[in-house]
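Dear U.,

Please find below the material for section 3 of the report. The protein was modelled together with zinc ion; I have listed the sequence and SMILES used, followed by the predicted complex structure.
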Amino acid sequence: MAASSVLLDGIGLLVTGSSDYGDGSPLGEVEDAAIVVDQGRVAWVGPAAAAPPVDVREDASGRCVLPGFVDSHSHLVFAGDRAAEFDARMAGRAYQSGGIRTTVTATRAASDEVLAANVARLVTEMRRQGTTTVEIKSGYGLTVRDEVRSLVLARQHTDETTFLGAHVVPKEFADDVAGYVELLTGDMLDACVPHSRWVDVFCERGAFDADAARTVLTAGMARGLRPRVHANQLGPGPGVALACELGAASADHCTYLTDADVDALASSGTVATLLPGVEFSTRSPYPEARRLLEAGAVVAIATDCNPGSCFTSSMPFCIALAVREMRMTPAEAVWSATVGGAVALRRADVGRLVPGARADLMVLDAPSYVHLAYRPGVPLVATVWHEGKPSPW
Ligand SMILES: [Zn+2]
């Protein structure tokens, strides 16, 4: 092994995220394991007894090590706070998608410094809870200037940036949706393409219908962006079918699905990304994860961290919800929060601890990943390594 290599051994239980490394299960479990990291990448994984000789050694003291979480859906660029709306909702008022406009007003009024500080704080919050890859969307600016600055700020933290000018129709276009779609697919797209990898649409009643969503997504695709869709959150709708038809990497929410939607997800490469923090925070029915899994769909779990419908940055919390409320097993939920998220971002280098992958991992203050659901709300993430380096905090 190279002189720059570091051996992390004494791992009580290692999750590789690959059936090729470990016990043959999708999660790839190895007991009494070790991992060798070199130049930010995983160089070797396996049983500690078989580890190659390496000069620099760290001891995991029998704890569980797993891949860093891949949070494939978040909205971190915003200003303001909607605690009052949450408070009212918990007193019985239903969530309306129009609440997004409250945040749009605050975001437009905020300075670059305030927005930058908010994103940095939330990314750090995520990192402390084990997230090493995060997708960040625009969508609270909804002008050319404000969408571009949102994406520029997001890019300082991740390559996985998503142009979501089609989050909601801003109030100045309330009577001219066609005019806003023209702006979205024209000047706004032109300005946002250089700062984005993805294009996304909130395809929902009260936001964008199937025709408008198709127009926005295909315009983005023609400029080299890859599609993902907010689909079927508030009721049945065309979002999932459209996502599968266009070959979107992911259809996100998937709360209300027809049998045809489930079939389409199971037979396409489109990942069903479930965001159970939203249902928790809006007191809504959870997506039917078992129905998707039994049909053979690829399921990811993400936070949807945003100031309105779900203000959690915690993947462990979402895993606990997935297990308790959506009847996923702890192994399925952890897979969906790591490998599943990576598939939803079409990334092969994150979400797994196999040779060649980025050395993004966490050491849990627990002997097993099961504790992430078994001990909900407890800060179990002891250390996070990002590209082979332990996070400084
Ligand atoms: Zn979202």
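For the text of the report, you could mention the following: The radius of gyration is 21 Å.

Regards,
Y.
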